[in-house]
Write a sequence for this structure.
């Protein structure tokens, strides 16, 4: 008897598919952020990710993601430890 009272009937709805968006603005903004990070490193190789975030007006996590992407593309490299190290540009486009 309990099973009959708790049984729910699922109703499925046929919604139209959501339209696909063109190249997202977040993709464009990440490219801009990456370029700005490179410019900041040119100005000050010893800059921290927190200083970059404050300068760009984005979160430290967003800076870390952009840096990881730049490092994967072999455009920048970290020399030395987190404290006392510096950034080095590998490829400058």
């Amino acid at each position: 008897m309990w099973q009959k009272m708790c049984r729910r009937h699922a109703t499925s709805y046929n919604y139209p598919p959501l339209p696909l968006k063109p190249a997202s603005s977040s993709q464009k903004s990440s490219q801009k952020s990456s370029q700005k990070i490179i410019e900041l490193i040119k100005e000050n190789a010893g800059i921290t990710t927190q200083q970059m975030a404050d300068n760009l007006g984005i979160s430290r996590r967003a800076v870390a993601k952009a840096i990881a992407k730049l490092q994967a593309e072999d455009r920048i490299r970290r020399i030395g430890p987190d404290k006392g190290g510096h950034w080095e540009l590998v490829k400058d486009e």
Observations:
- The chain has a mean pLDDT of 81.
- The helical segments are 2-6, 25-43, 49-56, 60-72.
- Residues 1 and 28 are 58 Å apart (CA to CA).
- The chain has four helices and two strands.
